């Protein structure tokens, strides 16, 4: 392989905590100590594409990063608020936020690569819902200023969060053995238990047969113990078509719930902007009136006789825009009405459609009962959505009636004030029918009350506006519930013993607000979503548990995981700093726990290591002075083929940790050839790689200095690189590789090579110096 060519270098103002390359684009995401997420491009002098500043709502303590396999969404976790955020890469927009019970310490986002005829037919029939459901309208832009997370311009992105039809899973791990799996990054398909310690690294196999976890557990002597755990997730693999279909539907449902939430937020904003002003203005006027009679009587006196004992100016005069206020309230009513018809009802219909399909799936018990789909619970969710639709329809009727009453009241009040001020009354406003008078009387009787209980509960003499009470997020009953007297249908239902308890009829909850019914609907649907996650989580069993080594306090533990999709193997790279600081170990296990156990292979030791691809490992090595910060650093590529093809076997004693039997591991030498490069003037510590894009990013020990390398090109720009790499072909950078053995003791030379790993570095350094002199 040709030498690496440096293509970028940058000094950063804040220390970097996490970094991850995009799997599809030349982009690297960095998270620093201030809570800021930076998206840097490797071209154009490594310029910043965008940055996402920290937010008090989302959090400031970023603990992990992960890219969706298509590179369109970046996920990051926050430790201070215990949340996970999904961010769109194109516009740096936060698309989805969901809370966690524990702090997330690591995450991994993978895509399923298994193919089957059942999956192919599902992929082809995925768009059937679009044939029956209209496209949900975009939320209006005029109410996007007060949304904490989303703006209405993002409604399309919210509905497209799932991306491609092929299943992808976001795996999250945290403290106390906390592990959860999220389909498409949104729907939780499994909550795993039985994993001890704190998760440090995760890798879900692309065939969904197993999940490999590196955990940190407190040992008896108090030092952290690093362990390898492999969990059998065969249920996900065996039911892959069913899991994909169920996850797709439930993710649709999750996005629709978010869409309804946004729609209701817009309605609340429209009401609060204008209608609350009217509510407060009339309430203030009532409290400041200078009369001993009730305000309702005063308005009725004005309605009947055209005059009143109190002055109407404190409310609002024609010169202050009474007519304009009435038009604004009418416009606000119209906006809320359109949101209910076009957004709430459309979203509810789509929700009913998808829930009904999931219920149909649950009735196919042979396929979906093992996944935890409960038809009875889904029937309850459908009923809750139906109640929400009824409440939205009830709100439409209230809006229609309130609009008529408000228009009649303002028109009458406007004319009455013109007459009292002895101003000209337009002829079109001078006519008032008996129906208009009835509307005004209804308005006065509904919005003014002598009941002291209303004053105690609401703090107002003026009743809560009829539409606004539906939009208030309160558990209390409606102050002015709809009048159902004379409703023949309700009377018929109450008299019918069979229809009263019929599951075909949705309950209406006439005393509750729209917000209350929405929260009840969300709670019922959430229970349906959680049931499969619990059932799938209980089916996951621990297949392999291997205690690896102990890590002293304040010592960084190196471990990284990789899933070889072709060979169907889990790879783990780690080091044992206390036992063999000159070695780097690679543990290989088959993704199928029921298959014969894979033999553990071991190579090299370094500061950091990442799997470059299926055949190569990228490492950062430190030179001879390993116990001092002044040691020289090397970036190298290690081929795995020679190590993994070793025929010798190592007999693992199950009662002992690996570090307690490391002396029985045979050692082999590995020559790097020209697959390395010295990192001059840089105390390198960490590395992030992307084998698809053939790039690597090296981070310094102070977390402020990064260098970017193209890995598969000749370094023609740097002076002296060719001469340095030429000598490496002959002797190379020697390091030790531990492969599997079956009780064979390592040769003395190998043992010396393991213990004296620094000699290899020193020898190579002397060769480099002699070559430079030549």
Automatic annotation (TrEMBL):
One of its GO terms (cellular component) is anaphase-promoting complex. Its main location: nucleus. Keywords: Cell cycle, Cell division, Isopeptide bond, Mitosis, Nucleus, Phosphoprotein, Ubl conjugation, Ubl conjugation pathway. It is found in: Nucleus. The keyword Cell cycle applies. Residues 228-422 form the Anaphase-promoting complex subunit 4 long domain. Belongs to the APC4 family. PANTHER family: ANAPHASE PROMOTING COMPLEX SUBUNIT 4 APC4, ANAPHASE-PROMOTING COMPLEX SUBUNIT 4. Component of the anaphase promoting complex/cyclosome (APC/C), a cell cycle-regulated E3 ubiquitin ligase that controls progression through mitosis and the G1 phase of the cell cycle. The APC/C complex acts by mediating ubiquitination and subsequent degradation of target proteins: it mainly mediates the formation of 'Lys-11'-linked polyubiquitin chains and, to a lower extent, the formation of 'Lys-48'- and 'Lys-63'-linked polyubiquitin chains. The APC/C complex catalyzes assembly of branched 'Lys-11'-/'Lys-48'-linked branched ubiquitin chains on target proteins. This is Anaphase-promoting complex subunit 4. It comes from Cyclopterus lumpus (Lumpsucker). The lineage of its organism: Eukaryota, Metazoa, Chordata, Craniata, Vertebrata. The gene is anapc4.
């Amino acid at each position: 392989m040709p030498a690496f060519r440096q293509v970028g270098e940058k000094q950063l103002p804040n220390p970097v905590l996490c970094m991850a390359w995009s799997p599809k684009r030349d982009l690297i995401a960095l998270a620093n100590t201030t809570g800021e997420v930076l998206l840097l491009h490797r071209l154009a002098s490594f310029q910043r594409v965008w940055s996402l500043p920290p937010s008090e709502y989302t959090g400031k303590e970023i603990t992990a990063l992960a890219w969706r396999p298509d590179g369109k969404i970046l996920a990051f976790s926050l430790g201070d608020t215990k949340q996970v955020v999904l961010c769109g890469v194109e516009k740096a927009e936060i698309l989805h936020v969901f809370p966690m019970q524990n702090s997330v310490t690591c995450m991994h986002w993978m895509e399923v690569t298994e193919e089957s005829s059942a999956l192919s037919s599902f992929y082809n029939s995925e768009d059937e819902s679009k044939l029956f459901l209209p496209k949900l309208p975009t939320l209006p832009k005029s109410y996007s200023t007060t949304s904490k997370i989303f703006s209405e311009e993002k409604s399309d992105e919210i509905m497209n969060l799932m991306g491609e039809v092929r299943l992808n899973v976001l795996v999250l791990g945290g403290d106390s053995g906390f592990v959860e799996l999220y389909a498409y990054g949104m729907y939780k398909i499994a909550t795993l238990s039985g994993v001890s310690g704190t998760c440090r690294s995760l890798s879900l196999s692309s065939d969904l047969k197993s999940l490999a976890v590196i955990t940190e557990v407190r040992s008896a002597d108090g030092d952290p113990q690093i362990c390898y755990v492999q969990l059998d997730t065969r249920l996900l693999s065996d039911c892959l078509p069913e899991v994909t279909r169920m996850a797709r539907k439930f993710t649709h449902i999750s996005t629709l719930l978010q869409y309804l939430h946004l729609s209701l937020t817009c309605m609340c904003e429209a009401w609060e902007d204008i209608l609350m002003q009217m509510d407060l203005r009339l309430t203030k006027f009532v409290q400041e009136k200078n009369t001993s009679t009730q305000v309702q009587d005063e308005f009725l006196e004005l309605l009947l006789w055209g005059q009143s004992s109190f002055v109407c100016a404190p409310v609002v005069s024609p010169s202050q825009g009474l007519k304009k206020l009435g038009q604004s309230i009418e416009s606000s009513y119209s906006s809320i009405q359109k949101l209910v018809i076009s957004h709430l009802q459309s979203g509810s219909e789509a929700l009913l459609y998808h829930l009904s399909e999931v219920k149909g799936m649950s009735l196919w018990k042979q396929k979906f009962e093992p996944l935890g789909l409960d038809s009875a619970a889904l029937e309850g969710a459908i009923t809750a959505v139906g109640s929400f639709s009824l409440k939205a329809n009830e709100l439409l009727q209230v809006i229609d009636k309130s609009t008529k009453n408000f228009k009649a009241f303002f028109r009458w009040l406007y004319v009455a004030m013109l007459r009292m001020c002895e101003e000209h009354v337009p002829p079109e406003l001078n006519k008032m029918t008996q129906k208009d008078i009835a509307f005004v009387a209804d308005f006065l009787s509904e919005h003014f009350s002598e009941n002291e209980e209303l004053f105690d509960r609401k703090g107002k003499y003026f009743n809560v506006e009829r539409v606004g009470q539906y939009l208030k997020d309160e558990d209390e009953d409606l102050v002015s519930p709809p009048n159902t007297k004379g409703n023949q249908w309700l009377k018929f239902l109450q008299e019918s013993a069979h229809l009263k308890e019929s599951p075909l009829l949705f309950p209406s909850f006439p005393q509750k607000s729209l917000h209350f019914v929405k929260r009840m609907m969300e709670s019922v649907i959430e229970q349906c979503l959680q049931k499969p996650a619990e059932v799938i989580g209980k089916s996951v069993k621990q297949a392999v548990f291997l205690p690896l080594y102990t890590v002293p306090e304040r010592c960084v533990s190196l471990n990284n995981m990789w899933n070889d999709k072709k060979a169907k193997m889990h790879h783990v790279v780690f080091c044992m700093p206390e036992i063999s600081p000159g070695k780097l170990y690679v543990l290989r296990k088959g993704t199928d726990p029921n298959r014969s156990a894979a033999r553990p292979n071991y190579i090299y030791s370094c500061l950091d290591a990442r799997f470059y691809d299926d055949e190569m490992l990228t490492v950062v090595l430190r030179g001879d002075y390993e116990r001092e910060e002044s040691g020289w650093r090397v970036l190298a590529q290690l081929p795995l083929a020679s190590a993994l093809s070793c025929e010798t076997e190592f007999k693992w004693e199950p009662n002992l940790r690996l570090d307690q039997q490391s002396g029985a591991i045979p050692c082999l030498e590995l020559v790097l050839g020209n697959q390395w490069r010295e990192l001059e003037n840089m105390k390198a510590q960490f590395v992030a790689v992307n084998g698809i894009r053939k790039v690597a990013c090296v981070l310094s020990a102070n977390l402020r200095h990064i260098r970017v390398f193209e890995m598969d090109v000749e370094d023609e720009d740097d002076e002296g690189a060719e001469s340095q790499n030429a000598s490496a072909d002959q002797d190379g950078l020697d390091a030790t590789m531990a492969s599997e053995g079956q009780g064979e003791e390592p040769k003395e030379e190998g043992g010396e090579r393991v213990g004296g790993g620094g000699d290899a570095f020193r020898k190579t350094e002397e060769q480099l110096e002699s070559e430079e002199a030549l």
